[in-house]
Write a structure and sequence with these properties.
The chain has 754 residues and is α/β, with parallel strands linked by helices. The protein is built from 28 helices and 29 strands.
């Protein structure tokens, strides 16, 4: 098989090495437009796991790379006059030129044909000259552009400018420097890659870059500006540039690259041509080399399965891993784009937020790396060394024993809105299980406002004693508090029980629906009627009446449901609200009715008891609610007296395209909390103690709600306490012997694993 690779960076060179090592008879040619050691950037960082992958793929190459490494363990952060250091992170760096030299030498040794200063402009003709054409030509890939209709790329230009410099200062830690100027923040990402030199990347927002006139600066002026700004940290050392071959384009924007497909016919993408990850997670070269391993592995089956299947296998083997890392890189990118959001945090929390920004590193993971650092953070956060989730939290007159919340989850098990024995056992068990706050499911304020015939309600006189029975059990049998969540289904009502068909209309017995506009939730759902002003007043009063009933039942807290496409959410999103009166149009108008309802409820809810609002922070659809809108929504409710925003997302349209992943909604909680200055509750695919404590200590939320984990384990919180060695979590006295046994079993398991 004749292989041509366009692009002679690490991805293309390593693929050439692997192909020639495994298939010596295959002719392999690599065409690179630049000279052999032209490179953008200075050093490359590898993890131990990546090195092991390289050893298994081609040990001679791995051995050469390892011998050239500079190694360090610490991260050092300079922020607002404070220096914070954390150890145990284990980085290895190598000069980018040295890496290219090693790969070029090994490729030549194996018989790969290297053609430098060869700019292939006619990609289609080149494709026809070989059996396999590999596009390893970087983020601005000409190969990808030539077959864009087939690859279907998405290019997302991010909001910061960066310049990749070097310095003669040999740093002894991966170093982050944050300096504020009159026009905004500048960040340095710096690390040593050999005995004498370090990479020194300077980054700032586009508007800051423009305000300082750096858009017209040449290389010398850029160097002078950065040396003056970071003079206290350079200790007399100089900054260096190696971007002459880029024709003066020192400052660049990072572009996030992804492709729907990685191959078409006999053409395949590799490395940055297929996907990019922001340099702040240091994984671009890692992904490129691992792509090369994956493609070489897949080509081993080309004779039996054919090229098309081999390329499909390559894509399938790599795409999920790449997506995970791109999601982590997106979180990291957004953190650095929004330094001003975090700059008001205390230095200790700012640094912790930085270290855990990608959501790949959690609290216990940090503890494994640097126990002393994590102990210091816990003492700062809670006044003593205690896991953040077990630090009490206060909202108005309500104090929670810990920050774990049982998320509101519809059970579809009520009779005409009346909760029964199932709800007593369901909510009561989870209160016994140690959570600080228990939420009811969305409790509907009218019979017609139910999602399904099985939904809970607060509209009949008998609902009050039914709920009071549950509230009294929670209060007398546990230290948990309980929150009543009130809502109205709007256009998503009159549907089957969840297990009979989600959002499916009833086969019979449907009731009429209402909404801000006469738009059905989905084509299969009935069309609602557009609410009149008189009907809006009637429903508002139903919310108020239900809030008063909640007071009678003894609830500690009240939440207004303005998310997930139900009635009030449908007013907020432009996807559902097409009104032409004062309740439609601008975001301020669309918020008018939900705010009116909240204001009326707040007036009857006791002053000392808190109120929260659940929102969908994004519709996951172009033209719908986005993160910036969510900030304004939260700000509006804060002005009306909301104490906490319960930050969910989506479920407002069946056309939504969520970006799933672990803690996938937490960045919206982070954004709202730190831009609006209001307490938030994070929810959404949060599953373990490591994630929970990192969210809390990193100022991404003040409470963490878990749904499915509590369905699987009602005693999640008490089990978490045992896992963490936290013995002070209160157990029901009837269960204390179980506590002692569990703690012994956990201790034995840890001893056996150590």
């Amino acid at each position: 098989m004749r292989v041509t690779c366009i692009g002679g960076g690490p991805a293309g060179l390593y693929l050439g090495i692997l192909i020639k090592a495994r298939f010596p008879s295959w002719p392999v040619r690599i065409a690179e437009r630049n000279r052999p050691l032209d490179t953008f950037g200075w050093g490359v960082v590898f993890s131990d796991a990546t090195l092991e992958n390289l050893r298994a793929a081609d040990e001679p190459t791995q051995r050469e790379i390892t011998q050239a490494f500079a190694h360090w363990d610490d991260i050092e952060i300079y922020f607002n006059g404070h220096t914070i250091r954390s150890g145990g992170h284990g980085f290895s760096g190598i000069s980018r030129k040295r890496l290219l030299s090693i790969l070029q030498h090994r490729a030549t040794e194996l018989g790969v044909e290297l053609s430098f200063q060869t700019d292939i402009t006619d990609v289609a003709t080149e494709r026809d000259r070989c059996d396999l054409l590999v596009g390893a030509d970087g983020a601005n890939s000409r190969v990808r552009q030539s077959f864009a209709d087939e690859f279907q790329p998405t290019l997302e230009r991010r909001g910061c400018r960066y310049v990749w410099l070097g310095t003669t200062l040999p740093l002894d830690a991966f170093t982050f420097i944050f300096e504020r100027t009159e026009h905004g923040w500048f960040t340095v990402h710096a690390y040593r890659f050999d005995e004498e030199l370090s990479t020194f990347i300077v980054e700032c927002r586009e508007e800051t870059w423009l305000a300082h006139g750096l858009d017209t600066a040449d290389s010398a002026q850029t160097i002078a500006f950065c040396e003056e700004l970071f003079e206290p940290y350079l200790h007399g050392h100089r900054l260096l540039t190696n971007s002459a071959h880029l024709r003066g384009r020192d400052w660049l924007n990072f572009t996030r690259v992804s492709n729907e497909h990685w191959s078409t016919g006999n053409v395949v993408l590799l490395g940055d041509a297929a996907h990019t990850a922001h340099f702040s997670v240091g994984s671009g070269t890692k992904l490129a080399l691992e792509d090369a391993i994956g493609l070489a592995d897949a080509l081993a089956g080309v004779e039996s399965a054919g090229l098309e299947k081999a390329l499909q296998q390559y894509e399938a083997s790599r795409k999920l891993e790449v997506l995970k890392l791109q999601n982590a890189a997106r979180n990291s990118t957004e953190w650095f784009e929004n330094i001003a959001r975090y700059a008001t945090l205390p230095p200790e929390q700012f640094a912790y937020s930085l270290l855990t920004r990608s959501q790949r590193i959690g609290h216990e993971n940090l503890r494994l790396r640097d126990t002393t650092y994590v102990d210091r953070i816990e003492r700062w956060f809670g006044g003593r060394a205690v896991p953040p989730m077990f630090v009490p939290f206060r909202l108005r007159g309500l104090e929670l024993q810990n920050r774990i919340v049982v998320s509101p989850m519809d059970m579809y098990s009520s009779v005409d809105g009346t909760p029964g024995d199932f709800h007593l056992v369901h909510l009561g068990t989870r209160a016994l299980g140690g959570a600080g706050l228990i939420f009811t499911e969305m409790t509907c304020v009218t019979r017609e406002g139910r999602i399904s015939p099985g939904c809970a309600g607060m509209y009949l006189p008998e609902h009050v004693p039914a709920w009071k029975r549950i509230v009294d059990f929670v209060h007398t049998s546990s230290r948990a508090k309980i929150c009543l969540q009130l809502g109205h289904s709007g256009p998503k009502g009159s549907t089957k029980l969840l297990w009979e068909g989600m959002d499916e209309p009833l086969d019979e017995g449907n009731w009429p629906l209402v909404a801000p506009s006469a738009i059905p939730y989905a084509s299969r759902n009935q069309a609602p009627s557009e609410l009149t002003r008189a009907e809006m007043v009637e429903i508002r009063d139903a919310f108020v009446r239900a809030a008063g009933m909640g007071v009678e039942a003894g609830f500690d807290m009240l939440e207004l449901h303005c998310a997930h496409g139900y009635l009030l959410s449908s007013f907020i999103t432009p996807l559902r609200n097409h009104r032409h009166d004062e309740y439609g149009g601008s975001l301020a108008n669309r918020l008018r009715y939900p705010l009116e309802v909240f204001r009326a409820m707040r007036a009857v809810w006791p002053e000392e008891r808190p109120m929260s609002v659940r929102i969908s922070a994004t519709d996951w659809v172009d033209g719908g609610i986005n993160g910036e809108d969510a900030v304004e929504i939260a700000r509006a409710f804060k002005l009306e007296g909301a104490d906490l925003i319960d930050v969910s997302a989506g479920q407002t349209t069946p056309d939504a395209k969520p970006v799933y992943g672990r803690m996938f909604q937490t960045p919206y909680s982070d954004k709202i909390r730190n831009e609006v200055g209001i307490a938030t509750m994070a929810v959404g695919n949060i599953t373990d103690v490591d994630q929970v404590d990192a969210i809390l200590a990193g100022a991404r939320a003040d409470l963490v709600a878990l749904g499915r984990p509590h369905l699987a384990d009602p005693f999640w919180t008490l089990h978490a306490a045992a896992e963490l060695g936290y013995e002070e979590a209160p157990w029901p006295v009837q269960y204390l012997s179980g506590k002692e046994q569990l703690e012994r079993l956990v201790a034995r398991a840890k001893d056996a694993a150590s």
